[in-house]
């Protein structure tokens, strides 16, 4: 049975490479140039077939890749087995700090992070290893916030999140498409005519709203920032307070990147049967623990669907236990994530090649994004699709 899971993961890697061969194109180049010969790359990522596709190509460039899982909820068991069968160290057990320290035990010189947790573990617990770090890459908004809030970092950290591609392609189109595919798959609901609320109108929220509108949904936007709320208004969306929106909408999607934006107390007057979804990083945007404590009954009605019955009799449905649903379900086109991984690989290649960058946060250089964009266009033109 476990072998079947690895085979499925391997088949998925083959499928995504066949129809958008951006990483294999890079892998062929790296196999010839071997930019990471003898180097160890520590990666802290969601462990999915997409991640396996990246690791495979980095290995062709001579890298010894060591991986920690960002979250158990976004870890695909088949992918873990596939990577381990290929000799890749994958650390999923213990608490998060243990996983990160286990990666650091391998002495990486390059780091790839989603949430600044691997870099944070290095700075807090392995100061003796800092001098060997040539550079790091951070790909999430929450990770950049942690970087900026902490003490100065003595090595360069390339900020992919604030480049041109991450927001415009992955956040807007990747998440925007993937979330609604996952919702339809898990609930069986046709989206047309459904009233939905998007909490947060950053790049992810804008993509969610646009794809929901295209699917025929009636969209409302909840946004605390007045500038973004004005953007939502001029994009044609109602912008009510959260407590007002939940009385009407059938689906609420959080997309802020911040913890506790949807508290259990804010659902006291929610519409019966409301569906809660998270599209932000982590599993804490929705107050799952508070909902569970306030519930009188909990039913696992389907895979990744839990229904809570509240004291008032209202029912609240939570998808994916509040974790990022598109990642939990591996839904949506893989192309935006693969493009982001291409940017990561190109950044690692430039750092290994001696690109001089200052210590601390460095926004992704435009020439790297331009090359990744051209590779994406080539992959679209040359794919089997």
Kindly describe this structure:
By secondary structure, this protein is an alpha/beta fold. It has two domains: 2-162 and 355-382, Rossmann fold (3-Layer(aba) Sandwich), CATH 3.40.50; 172-328, NAD(P)-binding Rossmann-like Domain (Rossmann fold), CATH 3.40.50.720. The protein is 45% helix and 18% strand. The protein has 15 helices and 14 strands. The chain has helices spanning 2-19, 22-33, 49-60, 77-85, 96-104, 117-125, 141-149, 164-187, 203-214, 226-234, 242-245, 288-294, 325-328, 335-352, 366-382, and strands spanning 40-45, 64-69, 89-91, 110-113, 135-138, 156-159, 195-199, 218-222, 251-254, 274-278, 295-302, 305-310, 315-319, 360-363. A seven-stranded parallel β-sheet has the order 3-2-1-4-5-6-14, with helices on both faces. β12 (305-310) and β13 (315-319) form a beta hairpin. α3 packs parallel to α14 and α8 runs antiparallel to α14. The longest helix has 24 residues, at 164-187. The chain is globular, with a radius of gyration of 21 Å. The mean pLDDT is 95.
Task: Give the arrangement of secondary structure elements.
Elements lengths: L1 H18 L2 H12 L6 E6 L3 H12 L3 E6 L7 H9 L3 E3 L4 H9 L5 E4 L3 H9 L9 E4 L2 H9 L6 E4 L4 H24 L7 E5 L3 H12 L3 E5 L3 H9 L7 H4 L5 E4 L19 E5 L9 H7 E8 L2 E6 L4 E5 L5 H4 L6 H18 L7 E4 L2 H17 L3
Helix pairs in contact: 1-3, 1-4, 2-3, 3-4, 3-14, 5-6, 8-9, 8-14, 14-15
